[in-house]
Specification:
With about 375 residues, the chain is of the alpha/beta class. The chain has 2 domains: about 5-30 and about 255-374, Aspartate Aminotransferase, domain 1 (Alpha-Beta Complex), CATH 3.90.1150; about 35-250, 3-Layer(aba) Sandwich (Aspartate Aminotransferase, domain 2). Helix content is about 45%, strand content about 10%. It contains 11 helices and 12 strands. The protein has helices at about 5-15, 35-45, 60-75, 90-100, 115-125, 155-165, 225-235, 240-250, 255-280, 305-315, 345-374, and strands spanning about 20, 85, 105-110, 125-130, 135-140, 170-175, 200-205, 215-220, 295-300, 315-320, 320, 335-340. A 7-stranded mixed beta sheet has the order 2-8-7-6-5-3-4, sandwiched between helices. A 3-stranded antiparallel beta sheet has the order 9-12-11, with helices on one face. Helix 5 (about 115-125) links the parallel strand 3 and strand 4 (about 125-130). Helix 4 runs parallel beside helix 5. The longest helix has 29 residues, at about 345-374. The radius of gyration is 21 Å and the shape is globular.
């Protein structure tokens, strides 16, 4: 991430009273605290103390079996031996890129996509490109995209799978937001239609808690040994305590009901944020997302999105500048990712009012600067 923007976001996060419309934080109201606490106590009380011991790089067998069973329900030919538990989805992406690509490799992405994936690609010396020809791989979020919160159509899915097969390229399928959705059933993962080319990434961070730092990676079977070696070299294993806690939690609680409740909760917040934006900042262009945590807003405002963020923080609100999600890193015209997930609706509405004032102040400053320059 751009150092200036990172500093501004950190400043905003530490500013008392600031309303955050940025970040991908889930709502703390939805954390199943009592059930997680009960699972924690059972995990640490087990006589063999497995939760407090070292484990194998592939992770907890019960948890891997649960992930595999859930993917089979969606049509994928997966068993527990295909699943590697990771320290969140980000480490799953790191393992995949380490095994698959050499420096200079070209990876096709949407024109706007997950910023931390772009940061990872850049750190590994990979080229994230919008075109889909002459690439070694595709990075995609077909079930629920980030930052736009949209689902890939069936035709788009078929076209991507065809391109991967014809070009012998791999697909990294990031399923992080897949289950936070409304209005459409959970789709088949790309993994279900091409086990040979798809590396599937998932996480519990959006549905249960990011603090657990537990995700997973499903790789084509011929790559399993190399992926395990890469995982082992990174950290030996994902957190034993968090994995044992989750394995206990998932056997005793209705995960589907939890996900359904979360989806209804976030849909209400999304609708309220979209209404507030349409009423208060009509110059922004956006669509109601189909799921996820965020709204992608575009404008015709020329300038520097980081400078607008600085103005917004002075007004008591923050957002994520669009450049960090864009492949071309353009700061202008200004775009932004706005989250409806973590702030209660009354604070979101107040945050939109503050953002409107910030945009007005930014435009006034730009006009003054233009007059002085003339």
């Amino acid at each position: 991430m751009d150092g200036r923007i990172d500093e501004l976001l950190r400043t905003g996060a530490s500013t008392p009273g600031l309303i955050s419309l940025g970040g991908g934080l889930p709502a703390s109201d939805l954390f199943p605290r009592r059930a997680l606490a009960a699972s924690f106590l059972r995990a640490v009380s087990e006589p063999n103390a497995a939760a407090l011991q070292y484990g194998w790089p592939e992770g907890n067998e019960r948890l891997r079996a649960w992930v595999a069973a859930r993917l089979r329900r969606r049509g994928a030919d997966v068993d527990s031996s295909d699943v590697i538990m990771t320290s969140g989805a980000q480490q799953a992406l790191a393992v995949a890129t380490q095994v698959l690509f050499r420096r200079g490799a070209r990876v096709s992405c949407d024109p706007e996509t997950y910023s931390s994936a772009l940061d990872l690609f850049e750190a590994r010396g990979l080229l994230a490109v919008p075109d889909q020809e002459r690439v070694e791989g595709f990075y995609t979020m077909p079930a629920m995209s980030n930052p736009r919160g949209l689902c890939m159509t069936d035709e788009q899915r078929r076209a991507l799978l065809r391109r991967a097969r014809v070009s012998h390229a791999v697909i990294i399928e990031d399923d992080a937001y897949a289950e936070i959705r409304w209005g459409s059933p959970l789709p088949r993962p790309l993994l279900a239609d091409d086990r040979a080319h798809v590396w599937h990434v998932g996480t519990f961070s959006k549905t249960l808690s990011p603090g657990l730092r537990v995700g997973w990676l499903v790789v084509p079977r011929r790559f399993r040994r190399r992926a395990l070696e890469a995982k082992n070299a990174l950290d030996l294993q994902a957190n034993s305590l968090a994995q044992e806690l989750l394995a206990d939690f998932l056997t005793r609680n209705d995960y589907d009901a939890l996900v359904e409740r979360a989806s209804r909760f976030y849909r209400r917040r999304a609708k309220n944020l979209v209404r507030a934006l349409a009423r208060r900042i009509p110059e922004l262009r956006f669509a109601m997302p189909e799921g996820g945590f965020t709204v992608w807003a575009e404008s015709d405002i020329e300038g520097d999105d980081a400078a607008l963020l600085e103005t917004a923080i002075a007004q008591g609100v923050s957002f994520e500048p669009g450049r960090i999600f864009r492949l071309d890193k353009r700061a202008s015209p200004i775009t932004m990712r706005l989250s409806f997930a973590s702030e209660p609706t009354p604070r979101q509405i107040e945050g939109v009012d503050r953002l409107a004032r910030a945009i007005a102040a930014y435009r006034r400053a730009g006009r003054r600067a233009a007059r002085h320059a003339a």
